[in-house]
């Protein structure tokens, strides 16, 4: 039987990540990313059979050109005819989308309506969907939402202490994101710990450029750190995370910021970058902190402290903790941050196994604590696989 592939697309405002996944082996056959789309020097990077190719796209080339160039390569590699479905990451599904769906014109309209809640994310996702539909018009396209997993949040968690009418009439509530990653981590942790998923209690810390943490009780999301938008919660690469909302008013009224400048400040100039005045890249922050850079040290301290406080607070909904799991670029690779966070949580008995902690990196999973205390482990995430699995399941239902 010939191989069948699912093509997974994750479209940002100026970037596009993609992966071609074998439906049988679940392995990535091809992957890559288009970056700096719409700028003077957009590029497309493709990894296939151990080769890495970088293609310089035409000046100002945007998503459609990137996808068309990619399709041309897929044809050249004779992979295009084996694609049976396209899976799209969509950041915000609001309360409308409780699960993944086959994308129809009606679904696109509904995603556009939800876009009011995620103006920085959903419009880019829709651009990707439309460009991919032009290129792969005959194939089923499936939307997989970051918010799906968190539909199980209880009201006492997802409601802000605002007048209730703002939720009822305008949908202002916490939604949570990174659902595909926290879902994958839950499934893998259950296997690793040999506990049935529906009995599993974990805290999943997804630490990448965007970062969020999720309390999973009996296999279901019961609390998570991101809110109405992916700005709330942990300190991130360039995002503030939790903030006194009055700061926004202060910046506008006292420091003459415009609302747009405030949005840019909170989303693109804060977090590790803002505190360190150096970089949003955690590797640079760690290197420079070690070299004595004060801003980098402070950024690292604040990042770890906020994260540890969130982890401690999630013992409230969980009661019993089977494991704390680190994932995402930082969670999978930074033994320094993992050790710092676990040391801040010594009150719970966490004890770092230094050798195991250093060994768990570059895709290597592992338990990083000593048996004397609670378990912390590293699991590399695989959001593309979750999107591919959902796309495959829905497509097969349709057949
Ligand atoms: P995204 O949210 O863009 O998917 P990733 O999950 O790829 O982000 O994570 C990117 C972050 O991971 C960056 O801050 C990067 O510096 C960090 N990172 C990657 N490798 C390492 C490493 N070896 N040590 C520390 N941080 C790392």
Describe this structure in words.
It is a single chain. The chain has 399 residues and is of the alpha/beta class. The chain has 2 domains: 5-145, Nucleotidyltransferase, domain 5 (2-Layer Sandwich); 195-383, Nucleotidyltransferase, domain 5. 40% of the residues lie in helices and 19% in strands. The chain contains 16 helices and 14 strands. The chain has helices at 63-76, 105-114, 122-135, 155-158, 164-170, 179-193, 246-254, 259-268, 271-276, 282-290, 294-313, 315-318, 328-333, 335-344, 354-359, 383-398, and strands at residues 5-11, 16-22, 28-35, 43-48, 51-56, 83-90, 101-102, 141-145, 202-207, 211-217, 220-224, 323-327, 366-367, 376-378. The protein has an 8-stranded mixed β-sheet with strand order 5-4-3-2-1-6-8-7, sandwiched between helices. Strands 11-10-9-12-14-13 form a 6-stranded mixed β-sheet, with helices on both faces. A hairpin with an 8-residue loop joins strand 13 (366-367) and strand 14. Helix 1 (63-76) crosses helix 3 and helix 10 packs across helix 11 (294-313). It is globular. 44% of the residues are buried. The mean pLDDT is 95. Adenosine-5'-diphosphate binds next to helix 10 and helix 13. The site of adenosine-5'-diphosphate has 13 residues, from helix 10 and helix 13.
């Amino acid at each position: 039987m010939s191989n069948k592939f699912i093509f997974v697309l994750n479209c940002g405002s100026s970037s596009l990540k993609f992966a071609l996944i074998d439906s049988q082996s679940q392995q990535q056959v091809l992957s890559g990313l288009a970056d700096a789309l719409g700028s003077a020097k957009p590029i497309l990077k493709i990894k296939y059979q151990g080769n890495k190719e970088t293609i310089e796209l035409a000046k100002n080339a945007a998503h459609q050109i990137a996808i068309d160039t990619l399709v041309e390569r897929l044809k050249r590699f004779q992979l295009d005819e084996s694609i049976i479905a396209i899976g799209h990451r969509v950041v915000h599904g609001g309360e409308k989308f409780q699960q993944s769906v086959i994308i129809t014109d009606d679904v696109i309209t509904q995603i556009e309506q939800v876009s009011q809640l995620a103006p920085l994310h959903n419009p880019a996702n829709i651009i990707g969907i439309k460009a991919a539909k032009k290129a792969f018009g005959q194939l089923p396209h499936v939307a997989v939402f970051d918010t799906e997993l968190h539909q199980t949040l209880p009201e006492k968690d997802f409601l802000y202490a605002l007048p209730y009418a703002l939720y009822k009439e305008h949908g202002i509530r916490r939604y949570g994101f990174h659902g595909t990653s926290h879902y994958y981590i839950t499934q893998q942790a259950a296997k690793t710990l040999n506990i049935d998923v529906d009995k599993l209690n974990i805290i999943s810390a997804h630490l990448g450029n965007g970062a969020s943490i999720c309390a999973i009780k009996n296999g279901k999301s019961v609390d998570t750190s991101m809110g109405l938008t992916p700005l709330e919660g942990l300190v991130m690469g360039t995002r503030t995370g939790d903030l006194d909302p009055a700061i926004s008013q202060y910046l506008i009224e006292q420091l003459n910021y415009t609302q747009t400048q405030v949005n840019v400040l909170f989303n693109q100039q804060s977090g590790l970058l803002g505190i360190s005045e150096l970089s949003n890249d955690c590797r640079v922050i760690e290197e420079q902190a070690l070299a004595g850079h004060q801003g980098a040290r402070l950024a690292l301290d604040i990042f770890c402290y906020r994260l540890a406080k969130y982890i401690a607070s999630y013992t409230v909904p969980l009661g019993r903790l089977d494991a704390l799991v680190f994932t995402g670029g930082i969670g999978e690779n930074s033994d320094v941050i993992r050790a710092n966070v676990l040391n801040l949580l010594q009150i719970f008995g966490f004890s770092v196994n230094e050798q195991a902690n250093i060994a768990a990196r570059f895709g290597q999973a592992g338990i990083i604590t000593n048996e004397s205390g609670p378990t912390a482990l590293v699991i590399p995430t695989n959001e593309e696989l979750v999107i591919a699995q959902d796309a495959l399941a829905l497509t097969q239902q349709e057949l």
